Structures are given as structure tokens and as C-alpha cells.
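Minutes, project huddle
Topic: does the predicted pose make sense with magnesium ion bound?
PN asked that the exact inputs be recorded in the minutes so nobody has to dig through chat later. Recorded below.
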Amino acid sequence: MSATATVAALKAHLADLQMPGSLEAVDDLLRRLDQGALSPADAMEQLLAAQVALRRQRRLQTAMSTSRLPAVKTLETFDFTFQPSIDRAQVLSLHELHFLERKENVIFLGPAGVGKTHLAVSLAIRAAEHGKRVYYSTLADLVLSLQDAERQSKLRERFITLKQVGLLVVDEIGYLPVTANGANLFFQLINARYEKASTILTSNKSFKEWGAVFGDSVVAVAMLDRLLHHCHIVNVKGNSYRLRQYPGLSMPDDGLPPRRAGRPRKSKEVPQPA
Ligand code: ADP
Ligand code: MG
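Predicted holo structure (C-alpha cells), as shared on screen:
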């Protein structure tokens, strides 16, 4: 076969195999091969890498529309130097996603603004890029959706759907208290997913305080018993990234900046370090 015919056949194969990423990369790779700027092995690797990158991007687009992830947050934009309490090796290793294969959970604990949601979303995006079904919700929204399903006698279907999600992210445990019925429904969900699929949770409250969050220490203990059995805990102790211009400002557990006594702060006024 002539060189031109070989290239045409190569492109036909790539089209037949539905590999538009590789198809788009092939001319440039062949040119760099001709110039001696690439080894044949590198060229083959990059041909396939172009397709893998496109697939990843498409999976991410699908996940962003179906998983309700709030924003694209990745490890690349996470500044570990700002949060030295985070065990970087642990977070990097979690991003290899072995916890998903082992159906283990991940819990991010720490005050407001320290990057819990960022890292939870980053793991979820990595999982979505690897073809996992991902679903994100705050605890408050999740409980509302379960109560809604219960009212419509569709709780069983809702549990089945949520059980099939490969990675469930439950954000913001602790900002809003949960009713007894809500706690019960959430416990049932955790129980249904126990050892079957991974869940990532974030909380500004220590485990001891979960009894108060769920209004019932027995339910909270039973829930933690399931969640912590196979679990990675990332404890973040640090300052809010949102308030990084104000290093003296510490955040209480309610997630709101500390209020000064006296007149309320005007919106334009910049809080000064204590
Ligand atoms: P939390 O969920 O702990 O309250 P977030 O993850 O929502 O905090 O972080 C608050 C904001 O600050 C987000 O926009 C997040 O992307 C950003 N952020 C937090 N920590 C870091 C960090 N170490 N490096 C870069 N951005 C960060
Ligand atoms: Mg958050």
C-alpha cells in the first residue's frame, strides 16, 4: 500500500471504530513522526491518548448535566500549600479511585470554606471521567427528595435509583438540622448502600455532634456504624479559603463569619483581622 493509501485506511479504521479524538490528532502526529520529533511508540500512545481525553471530556459533560455537581472543581486548582493540615498523599491516593472498587466511603470533616466540597466534587469528577454514575446533593436537598418520594409512594423506586449510583456525594451535613423522619429516610439510604456502593460525605460537625444534627443519637450512631466501617476520613483543620485575605478571621462551626457586637456590618465594610 502507498503511504497515502495507508493513511487513508488508518483514518477509515478510526472512523469505523468511532474514535473522533484520534482521528483529529492523526495528521499532526504523522507530521511530527515524519519530522523525527516523535518516536513511533510515542505516536501510538498519543493517538490513543487523544481518544481517551475526548471520552473523558464527554463523560464529564454528561456527568455535569446528570449528577447535579455544583461546579467543576479539580485537584489541579486545589492549593495544598494553603491547607497544610490536609494529608496530600491521602487525597492523591483517593483520586486513584480504589475506594470505589472497594465500596468504601470518604468523609471530609472541617469548618466552612476549607475545601471539603471542592475535594468531594473533584473526586466525583474523577469518578465520572472513569465512567461511574455520580450523584451530588446536599443533605437537606436529598432528605427533601426522599420525603417527596415518600409522599408520592415512590420511595422504593427512589431508593433503587440511588442504590444504583456508583458514587453518591452528600454535602453539607450539619448546616441544617434534619427532622426525625428525614433522619430515618437518610439512614435507610445509607443502610441500602452499605458495602454496595461508595458515598462521600462532608460535614462541619464532628461525629459526636451528628446526634444533634439528626435529632436522634441512636439513628446517628447506627448511621455512623455503617458509614465508618469502611471509610477514609479527611480531617481539615484550617482557615477558610474564601476568607484568605483575612487570615485572623476564624470561622465558627455555623459557617457564618463571626459577628461583632454593636451595629451590624455594612456590606461594603471590610472585616479586619481580630
Ligand atoms: P467547604 O465545602 O469546606 O465549605 P469549599 O470547598 O466550598 O469549602 O471551598 C470554598 C471555596 O474556596 C471554593 O470556591 C473552593 O474551590 C475554594 N477553595 C477552598 N480551598 C481551596 C484550596 N486549598 N485551593 C484552592 N481553592 C480552594
Ligand atoms: Mg461545602
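Observations noted during the meeting:
- The beta strands are 105-109, 134-138, 167-173, 198-203, 231-235.
- Residues 147 and 182 are 7 Å apart (CA to CA).
No decisions taken; revisit at the next huddle.
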